[in-house]
């Protein structure tokens, strides 16, 4: 069972048992949960004729007794308050309450108290509390996301809220999969440890009855790791389709907003990129940019043939055929336009920002040695007028992460150059990154230059040559997955929580990255699953990062850290 | 996919609260009635109503009644009628499929009854679809609040999808029928031709006896096949006509139907677009209000200034002249 389909099944089950005309009421979080797995036309088939947000439904007081209200909310106190007010003066005929997570007893009591007219038909917990953007990739949209970088003393209540949200979400994922995992975490990260411990407490003590499923031979594994262990992946430019769209334009819950990058006709301002609904995207989401161009050309050719055959209508039969094919034709037309627009816009951006040469240097920095050459390349790019400020900053960051200890002098030169070159550069951001995720903080071998085995492997790869210069980088996650498959993930680095140890190889592994996942990692997981090693990986994160988002988190964390030290 | 049903717990607590509330309210009522006279004795006129007020609000039966009285709006009936019409059309279509396959079977009779059945069925279905389509258009015509109109729009959409699927289905069936019919016809023609050929061979033998004209037998055969082809022609025309009609329905409906996999099909997009359009409307309204206000003020002020000026002139004139 994969996360996307189980979320879908939940929604299906909510809607199918209630007959008659319905209104579905969601909150700002569950709307994302429902939107990525369900479509408006499917809702219409289930006789859901109105979808509203919980705060806007309480604005109006017009009574609609012919409708049944189906609530699907997170059990937060604001939502309970909204519900309480609604139940005191009901607008709808029946109320069916579904919550996406574990309800507290007090919350049930509050609701029962306010239901004087007995309009509530059922109260259920349906654990779809994660946004399943791809079959093997889920995310929680955690507010104030930067907080994971700061120590807990800076802002205890926000950190607590962050942890609670993540733990609740993870609990929901495992309830949806009907499993109780053993939990491991990354030793060096405080926040990962805290989340792992709180999740263990919830699953083995507080709600142990709920998590008491039929014993499987081997429990699945939940591995909690920290984004700062691999800060390189979110800083790189991407060249595979899905990751590239997110990096250059931005994907939000499988939606791409094109309004920010130019003028488009009304129906193309926002487009949907979903692997579930779009077969072309499903086939090409992990392909690299060059191949995408070819495949799109093929699709356009195909489309032209279809439209040509639609043009010469002479007999009645042709006409009938045309009318038959018209919906398919229109769908194809929309799809072709969408992908062509996206690729055109992206290649425009690539040209503008000289991403070809920038990305080559980035990959060199991330994968190969050669400090002198790297320094020269970075300096040249800093001097190049057409390279954007963002790319300059990223180059210096990558250089700093790689050669932090080797060449402090050259690093200082780069800092000064960066400060003089880009006006918007915020001083100290690179240093902040090093403080957060520098060599001393990381324990893994991110660049593959610490032990002899890895160095040898790198050299071997260098001799063999790489297939594509732009996509040679492998995220750290790839190494972690490999060592899990081989059963060589070290207990010292990734200890178990409590006394729940793993016996044998797990069949399901959920890797949760505190601080957000990238689509490059999502691709890595999908390819790993396609290899069929007998272990199924699912990737989860507190958000989906691109470099802009990652830098924004960094800036925010730096700002808060600085203000807390001055106070 | 674990779930947990908390309804029992909820009900238990609700009942507990109710049982607590009920004696409380009755005792309150009792105390009110016992203290009532006292209050009335103390102040007869003004507090009379207030002492009864808690009684009327605590009475659950009246408020429940008031709630349940509200009837659904009239468009709900319309939509239900359309739904039943669609259901009927679906049944009829399955009947039609049976009739089609029966008509295509080779039979010894002339199959006129089958033809008539098919014709009437097709007509009935088409008229059903037409009627529901007209009614569907009416669904959005009535005015109401924004939420209500949203609901109506969505009901309309879902019915439109049903209707479209149905008419697609019907058309596909008809076109396959048509194709098979034409194939059969060609087959018949082929057979006829062969027979004619045989006949002409016969004719060459007969030449010795009679030189001119067709034989009696040939004439009847010719007439028969002519009649047959005319009939088939008519059938085909009939079907083509209904295909046309269906195409029209399709065109009208396609405005309403959502394309799957597009942004319009996203749930969050729909909510956001509704809220932004509401906001936009509010903004427009405020702007209109502002301009209106401004316009009135300016008009008023200018007219006053002009009046002042005229008065001043009059005053000066008066001073000068008199």
From TrEMBL, chain A:
<dbReference type="InterPro" id="IPR043127">
    <property type="entry name" value="Sec-1-like_dom3a"/>
</dbReference>
<dbReference type="InterPro" id="IPR036045">
    <property type="entry name" value="Sec1-like_sf"/>
</dbReference>
<dbReference type="GO" id="GO:0031201">
    <property type="term" value="C:SNARE complex"/>
</dbReference>
<protein>
    <submittedName>
        <fullName>Vacuolar protein sorting-associated protein 45</fullName>
    </submittedName>
</protein>
<dbReference type="InterPro" id="IPR043154">
    <property type="entry name" value="Sec-1-like_dom1"/>
</dbReference>
<keyword id="KW-0653">Protein transport</keyword>
<dbReference type="GO" id="GO:0016192">
    <property type="term" value="P:vesicle-mediated transport"/>
</dbReference>
<comment type="similarity">
    <text>Belongs to the STXBP/unc-18/SEC1 family.</text>
</comment>
<dbReference type="GO" id="GO:0098588">
    <property type="term" value="C:bounding membrane of organelle"/>
</dbReference>
<keyword id="KW-0813">Transport</keyword>
<keyword id="KW-0472">Membrane</keyword>
<dbReference type="InterPro" id="IPR027482">
    <property type="entry name" value="Sec1-like_dom2"/>
</dbReference>
<dbReference type="GO" id="GO:0005794">
    <property type="term" value="C:Golgi apparatus"/>
</dbReference>
<dbReference type="Pfam" id="PF00995">
    <property type="entry name" value="Sec1"/>
</dbReference>
<dbReference type="GO" id="GO:0006886">
    <property type="term" value="P:intracellular protein transport"/>
</dbReference>
<dbReference type="GO" id="GO:0031338">
    <property type="term" value="P:regulation of vesicle fusion"/>
</dbReference>
<dbReference type="InterPro" id="IPR001619">
    <property type="entry name" value="Sec1-like"/>
</dbReference>
Automatic annotation (TrEMBL), chain B:
<dbReference type="GO" id="GO:0031201">
    <property type="term" value="C:SNARE complex"/>
</dbReference>
<feature type="transmembrane region" description="Helical">
    <location>
        <begin position="296"/>
        <end position="317"/>
    </location>
</feature>
<dbReference type="GO" id="GO:0007030">
    <property type="term" value="P:Golgi organization"/>
</dbReference>
<dbReference type="InterPro" id="IPR000727">
    <property type="entry name" value="T_SNARE_dom"/>
</dbReference>
<dbReference type="GO" id="GO:0098629">
    <property type="term" value="P:trans-Golgi network membrane organization"/>
</dbReference>
<keyword id="KW-0653">Protein transport</keyword>
<dbReference type="GO" id="GO:0006886">
    <property type="term" value="P:intracellular protein transport"/>
</dbReference>
<dbReference type="Pfam" id="PF05739">
    <property type="entry name" value="SNARE"/>
</dbReference>
<feature type="domain" description="T-SNARE coiled-coil homology">
    <location>
        <begin position="226"/>
        <end position="288"/>
    </location>
</feature>
<dbReference type="GO" id="GO:0043001">
    <property type="term" value="P:Golgi to plasma membrane protein transport"/>
</dbReference>
<comment type="similarity">
    <text>Belongs to the syntaxin family.</text>
</comment>
<dbReference type="InterPro" id="IPR006012">
    <property type="entry name" value="Syntaxin/epimorphin_CS"/>
</dbReference>
<dbReference type="GO" id="GO:1900150">
    <property type="term" value="P:regulation of defense response to fungus"/>
</dbReference>
<keyword id="KW-1133">Transmembrane helix</keyword>
<dbReference type="GO" id="GO:0009658">
    <property type="term" value="P:chloroplast organization"/>
</dbReference>
<dbReference type="GO" id="GO:0006896">
    <property type="term" value="P:Golgi to vacuole transport"/>
</dbReference>
<dbReference type="InterPro" id="IPR045242">
    <property type="entry name" value="Syntaxin"/>
</dbReference>
<dbReference type="GO" id="GO:0005802">
    <property type="term" value="C:trans-Golgi network"/>
</dbReference>
<dbReference type="GO" id="GO:0000149">
    <property type="term" value="F:SNARE binding"/>
</dbReference>
<protein>
    <submittedName>
        <fullName>Syntaxin 16</fullName>
    </submittedName>
</protein>
<dbReference type="GO" id="GO:0009306">
    <property type="term" value="P:protein secretion"/>
</dbReference>
<dbReference type="GO" id="GO:0005484">
    <property type="term" value="F:SNAP receptor activity"/>
</dbReference>
């Amino acid at each position: 069972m994969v996360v996307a389909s189980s979320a879908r099944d939940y929604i299906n089950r909510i809607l199918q048992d209630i007959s008659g005309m319905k209104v579905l009421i969601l909150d700002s979080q569950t709307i994302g949960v429902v939107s990525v797995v369900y479509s408006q036309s499917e809702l219409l088939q289930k006789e859901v004729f109105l979808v509203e947000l919980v705060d806007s439904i309480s604005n109006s007081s017009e009574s609609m007794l012919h409708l049944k209200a189906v609530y699907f909310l997170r059990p937060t106190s604001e939502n309970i308050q909204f519900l309480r007010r609604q139940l005191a003066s009901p607008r709808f005929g029946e109320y069916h309450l579904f919550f996406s997570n574990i309800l507290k007893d007090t919350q049930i009591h509050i609701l029962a108290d306010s239901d004087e007219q007995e309009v509530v038909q059922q109260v259920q917990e349906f654990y779809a509390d994660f946004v399943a953007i791809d079959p093997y990739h889920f995310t929680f949209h955690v507010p104030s996301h930067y907080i994971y970088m700061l120590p807990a003393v800076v802002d205890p209540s926000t950190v607590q809220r962050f942890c609670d949200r993540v733990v609740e979400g993870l609990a929901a994922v495992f309830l949806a999969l009907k499993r109780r995992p053993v939990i491991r975490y990354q030793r060096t990260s405080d926040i990962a440890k805290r989340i792992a411990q709180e999740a263990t407490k919830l699953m083995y003590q507080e709600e142990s009855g709920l998590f008491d499923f039929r014993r499987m031979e081997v429990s699945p594994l939940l591995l909690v790791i920290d984004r700062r262990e691999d800060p390189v992946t979110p800083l790189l430019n991407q060249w595979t389709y899905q990751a590239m769209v997110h990096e250059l334009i931005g994907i939000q819950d499988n939606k791409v907003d094109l309004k920010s990058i130019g003028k488009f006709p009304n129906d193309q301002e926002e487009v949907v990129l979903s692997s579930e609904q779009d077969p072309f995207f499903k086939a090409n989401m992990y392909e690299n940019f060059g191949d995408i161009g070819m495949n799109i050309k093929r699709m356009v050719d195909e489309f032209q043939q279809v439209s040509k055959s639609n043009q010469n209508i002479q007999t009645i039969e042709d006409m009938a055929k045309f009318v038959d094919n018209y919906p398919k034709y229109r769908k194809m037309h929309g799809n072709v336009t969408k992908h062509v627009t996206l690729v055109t816009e992206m290649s425009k951006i690539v040209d503008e920002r000289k991403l070809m040469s920038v990305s080559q240097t980035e990959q060199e920095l991330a994968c190969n040695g050669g400090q002198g050459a790297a320094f020269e390349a970075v300096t040249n790019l800093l001097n190049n007028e057409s390279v954007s400020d963002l790319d300059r900053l990223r180059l210096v960051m990558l250089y700093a992460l790689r050669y932090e200890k080797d060449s402090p002098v050259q690093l200082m030169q780069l800092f000064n150059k960066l400060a003089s070159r880009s006006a918007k550069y915020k001083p100290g951001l690179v240093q902040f990154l090093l403080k957060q995720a520098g060599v001393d903080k990381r324990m893994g071998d991110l660049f593959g230059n610490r032990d002899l085995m890895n160095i040898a492997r790198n050299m071997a790869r260098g001799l063999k040559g790489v297939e594509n210069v732009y996509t040679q980088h492998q995220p750290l996650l790839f190494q972690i997955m490999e060592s899990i498959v081989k059963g060589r993930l070290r207990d010292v680095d990734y200890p178990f929580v409590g006394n729940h140890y793993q016996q044998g190889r797990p069949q399901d592994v959920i890797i949760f990255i505190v601080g957000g996942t990238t689509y490059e990692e999502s691709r890595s997981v999908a390819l790993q699953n396609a290899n069929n090693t007998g272990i199924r990986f699912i990737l989860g994160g507190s958000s989906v990062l691109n470099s802009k988002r990652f830098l924004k988190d960094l800036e925010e964390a730096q700002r808060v850290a600085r203000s807390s030290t001055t106070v | 996919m674990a779930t947990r049903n908390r309804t029992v717990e909820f009900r238990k607590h609700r009942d507990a609260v109710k049982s607590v509330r009920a004696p409380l309210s009755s005792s309150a009522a009792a105390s009110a009635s016992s203290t009532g006279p006292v209050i009335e004795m103390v102040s007869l006129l003004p507090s009379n109503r207030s002492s009864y007020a808690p009684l009327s609000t605590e009475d659950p039966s009246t408020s429940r009644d008031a709630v349940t009285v509200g009837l659904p709006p009239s468009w709900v009936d319309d939509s239900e009628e359309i739904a039943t019409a669609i259901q009927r059309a679906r049944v009829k279509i399955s009947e039609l499929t049976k009739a089609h396959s029966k008509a295509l079977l080779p039979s010894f009779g002339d199959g006129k009854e089958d033809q008539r059945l098919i014709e009437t069925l097709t007509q009935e279905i088409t008229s059903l679809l037409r009627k529901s389509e007209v009614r569907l258009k009416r669904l959005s015509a009535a005015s109401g609040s924004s939420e209500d109109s949203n609901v109506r729009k969505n009901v309309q959409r879902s019915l439109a999808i049903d209707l479209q699927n149905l008419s697609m289905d019907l058309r596909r069936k008809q076109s396959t029928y048509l194709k098979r019919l034409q194939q059969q016809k060609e087959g018949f023609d082929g057979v006829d031709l062969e027979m004619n050929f045989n006949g002409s061979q016969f004719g060459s033998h007969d030449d010795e006896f009679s030189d001119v004209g067709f034989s009696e037998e040939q004439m009847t055969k010719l007439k028969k096949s002519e009649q047959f082809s005319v009939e088939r022609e008519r059938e085909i025309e009939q079907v083509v006509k209904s295909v046309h009609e269906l195409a029209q329905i399709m065109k009208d409906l396609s405005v309403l139907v959502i394309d799957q996999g597009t942004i319009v099909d996203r749930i969050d997009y729909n909510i956001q677009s509704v809220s932004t359009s509401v906001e936009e409307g509010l903004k427009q309204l405020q702007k209109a209000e502002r301009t209106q206000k401004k316009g009135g003020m300016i008009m008023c002020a200018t007219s006053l200034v002009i009046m002042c000026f005229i008065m001043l002139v009059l005053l000066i004139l008066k001073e000068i002249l008199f």
